[in-house]
Amino acid sequence: MKKRVIVYGVLAAAAVSIALAEVKINACGATFPDPIYEKWFSDYHKVHNDVQINYTANGSGGGVKGVTDGTVDFGASDMPMTDQELAAVKGKTLHFPTVLGAVVPMYNVPGITQELKFSGPTLAGIYLGNIKKWNDKALAADNPGVKLPNDDIMVVHRTDGSGTTFIFTDYLCKVSPEWKSKVGAAKAVSWPAGLGGNQNAGVTGVVKQTPDSIGYVELIFAIQNKLSYGLVKNKSGEFIKASMDTVSEAAAGVKMPDDFRVSITDAAGKNAYPISSFTWLLIPANIPDANKSKAIHAFLGWMLTDGQKIAPTLDFAPLPKPVVEKEQKQLAALEGSASTAPASGAKKKGAN
Amino acid sequence: MGDRIARLTALFFACVLLAIVALLVYELLSRSAPARAKFGWKFLTSSEWNPVTEDFGALPFLYGTVVTSVVAMLLSIPLGVGAAIFLAELAPAKLSNGLTFVIELLAAIPSVIYGLLAIFTLVPLMRQYIEPFLKETLGFLPFFQGPAAGVGYLTASLVLAIMTVPFIISVSRESLLAVPREQREAALALGATRWETTWQIVVPYAKLGILGSIFLGLARALGETMAVTMVIGNVPAVHASLLWPGYSIAAVIANEFAEAGGKLYPSALVELGLVLFGLTIVINGFARMMIVATTKKGSKR
User: Tell me, what's the pLDDT at A342?
Assistant: First the structure.
């Protein structure tokens, strides 16, 4: 009798697990878009409860590493993969921009009530250690009428490798030849000046507590923590405050290459915020598991339509329309090639 | 038969421990191979750390780890041993037990909590009062010059001192309490004062335990990561002054490993781990030698 009960129990459990059979997809990478990705994956699971995507925010470098080693089904990064990185991956990897981000200069100067303005060369000068005092000529020229104190500038930067640092240093490279030759653009660089803080929170902590300091953080982090930040001069000579609109404007003006690997820092538009960037999903062109491949493509289609509508609710700037359309074309091509590919994949499975 | 089984089991466990250490060394060596091949011994003396040009050196981190740990021990040894003597010898039993409970509670606090406390209370205090005061009074010494940013070697050392004190107090107190009552009674009977009894009889008797507590504290200081990275300033540079921001080995590994791309960069970080491993071996070896030396002296007497 007892045995029978156990047998039925096992059968029932098996039946349940078949009914709930779902495609489990693993992804990892960039931390900055993590809030919107988590929201997307959970919302998508609600409408397609047979697909579950697990996302680990272990950094852009982790996303690239995961795709290269094949430990995840897809990755995410704030920095497009380099040619070298792409060559290291077995098979082709495609970039899909998802949302937009920006980096803002945040400061703590006692006695100043106006919003400070920074031109690109001034920011570079501060981070190179050439501009040492708040009342330096360059800062005074950017901020006419503001009474700047005769105090030393305490420079703060990220110390952990980060997409935020890449976007910031990529911008400084474009506006300062000296920065380009001395430091360069990367997720971690050798900083000529300043203190290091760990993650957005660490930089914010130091800036908030240290009078006369300046740091840089992600726009979303600044908005959600109600931090005040400065305006940055763009290519058209306007001082622009970062917001969802000005970041979208920076993306609208860009000529998108076919592989979507593009930098939109120092964009040309009149209202474009200059330290803006896309963030990307890194999708393998050939996903051997046909179920997974189908599920990932379906999710990408959803992300480009319904997903984009959710983005602004979490302060992420959605993609400009032409970019969405271009991505949909890339996705259609991918689905086309995938629908012919599984035949060979299935055969292989049979042979095994 | 039973003896044999017990013996084999114990041997097996001992071998597992050895195997873990061997695996650790093997992993550190094999993963750091590209960096070791590229930089050689220069890795230990170079103070360059540039992920863009892929030029790496361990000196600023090694220096930061050693300086913060040593300064922390200079602060925590007198404090910890003094408090342990008070608790074991002078304080009434009730007070001693109550205080010991609180101190052991301190030892159980996660390091990130110490780090946060340091950022929000210690760093502003250092910047506004302690560092300007040190610069004014002791500024002629090379150790107290430079900026007063609040973060740096000295602040990190203070946090480490606070974190290691509970270990020193707790273990030292235990070993002081383990000194046989007869020793004290004999000294007192011979006419020694309370101070003479404590300092000349009890403390030397418990020396081994006290030394052990100090090395336990030092080991914690060397490997401490979170609390240090939050207050040391995270700048890979070598400065004689304790007021300057610096970096430590554990902190740089924690900060940079997750995002380290390419081949050489992660490999250089693993080699830093190897350096830290080597440093702890040297210090533990030193501790062993010291213990052997002191026990010999004891037996001669």
Answer: 46
| Crossing angle of helices A290-302 and A34-47, rounded to 10° | 110
Using a CB-CB cut-off of 8 Å, the residues of chain A touching B48 are 190
ipTM metric: 0.75
- Threshold 0.90, pTM exceeds: no
Q: Do B151 and A206 touch (CB under 8 A)?
A: yes
Note whether B174 and B87 are within 8 A (CB).
no
Torsion, CA B121, CA B126, CA B127, CA B128, rounded to 10: 90
Which range (A4-8, A165-169, A223-227, B269-273) has the least confidence? A4-8
CA dist B217 and B215 (Å) reads 5
Q: Residue A205, SS3?
A: helix
Within an 8 Å CB–CB cutoff, is residue B48 touching chain A?
yes
Whether A155 has a pLDDT exceeding 50, the answer reads yes
Q: Once rounded to an integer, what is the mean pLDDT over residues A5-28? A: 65
Q: Is A195 on the interface with B (CB under 8 A)?
A: yes
Q: By the 8 A CB rule, do B58 and B46 touch?
A: yes
DSSP strand pairing (B49-50 vs A154-158): unpaired
- Predicted confidence band of residue B39 (pLDDT cuts 50, 70, 90): very high
Query: Chain B residues with CB inside 8 Å of A210's CB?
Result: 127, 149-150
Whether B30 shows a pLDDT value over 90: the answer reads yes
DSSP percent split of chain B into helix, strand, coil, nearest 5 = 80, 0, 20
Chain center to CA of B277:
13
Q: How far is CA A136 from CA A126, A130, A233, in A?
A: 10, 10, 17
Among B119, B247, B260, whose Cβ lies nearest the Cβ of A161?
A: B260
Q: Where are the beta strands (DSSP E) in chain B?
A: 49-50, 55-56
A190 touches chain B (CB under 8 A): yes
pLDDT confidence of residue A32: 83
Are A78 and A101 a contacting pair, CB within 8 Å? yes
Q: Model confidence over A193-215: pLDDT tens digits?
A: 888 888 888 888 888 888 899 99
Q: How far apart are CA A64 and CA A83, in angstroms?
A: 12
| Strands of the A117-118 sheet, one edge to the other | A117-118, A231-233, A239-240
Contact A195 B233 (CB under 8 A): yes
- Alpha-carbon Rg of chain B, whole angstroms? 23
Helix then strand then coil, % of chain A, to nearest 5:
45, 20, 35
